[in-house]
Specification:
By secondary structure, this protein is mainly α. The protein has twelve helices and no strands.
Length: 241
């Protein structure tokens, strides 16, 4: 099996599983697919995963767009813009590996603290801060969901999914533009990302039954579990890159 075929086969499976997770919880595509694609061919990252990150939210929004928290989204995007710029500088000048380990550890600490309380306070300051951190890690590594998801963990499932979907769509589009501007968006990464849209759609369609199950009062636990796995995946990706 050639390297190109291996990337498409294994990468498609990872994107399918990631789309199932994100379609049900609201985030998680990056945590599954980004480490796998990085290990298969690091030159595809983060461009390939950003193409998928920009496409999947459109399917969630088609179903649940009425549940978007527009005020919170505004604060998140306010933090995301400078965070993306910092993430782009890291891609060009700084070790993405060191950043990934640091952020992964921070997410694990946040999960540990919030698991013992009802939730993190959701206000303009915390949402803006989460958007800033998500901008950094999303642009630099392709995994940007946990910070914002932890802030929204006490919200109902449809609101989490819809708000994160709108945020991810705009964020991925922004990251793609910034990566292109700094010269780190090869055509091959875009082509691979476009190919992975097919398994992404199949994964979203398969997430329906799980989505209904989690909406029965289990969303917060699912968010904490996915955030923990995401942090561990980010640390692993960073150490192996």
């Amino acid at each position: 099996m050639s390297d190109e075929v291996l990337v498409l086969v294994v990468g498609s499976l990872a994107v399918f599983v990631g789309a199932v997770v994100q379609g049900s919880v609201g985030f998680g595509l990056g945590l599954v697919a980004a480490p796998v694609l990085t290990m298969l061919d690091h030159s595809l990252m983060p461009g390939a995963i950003q193409v998928v990150n920009m496409t999947l939210p459109l399917f969630t929004l088609a179903v649940e767009w009425r549940r978007v928290d527009w005020r919170g989204l505004g604060f998140a995007l306010l933090g995301r813009l400078p965070g993306s710029a910092v993430g782009a500088l890291i891609v060009v000048y700084v070790s993405v590996q060191a950043l990934g380990v640091l952020v992964g550890v921070m997410v694990l600490l946040a999960v540990g603290l919030t698991a013992r309380t009802v939730s993190i306070a959701r206000n303009g300051a915390t949402i803006t801060g989460a958007g800033f951190l998500s901008g950094i890690t999303g642009t630099a590594t392709g995994i940007g969901g946990p910070p914002l998801a932890l802030v929204y963990q006490s919200a109902k499932g449809p609101q989490i999914r819809a708000t994160l979907a709108m945020f991810f769509f705009l964020s991925a589009a922004q990251s793609i533009a910034i990566l292109a501007f700094v010269g780190h968006l090869p055509a091959r990464a875009l082509a691979t990302g476009a190919t992975l849209i097919v398994p992404m759609i199949l994964g979203f369609l398969a997430s329906g039954p799980l989505r209904r199950y989690l909406d029965g009062g289990k969303v917060r636990v699912a968010v904490l579990v996915v955030a923990t796995v995401s942090a561990l995946a980010l640390i692993t990706q960073s150490l192996l890159a």
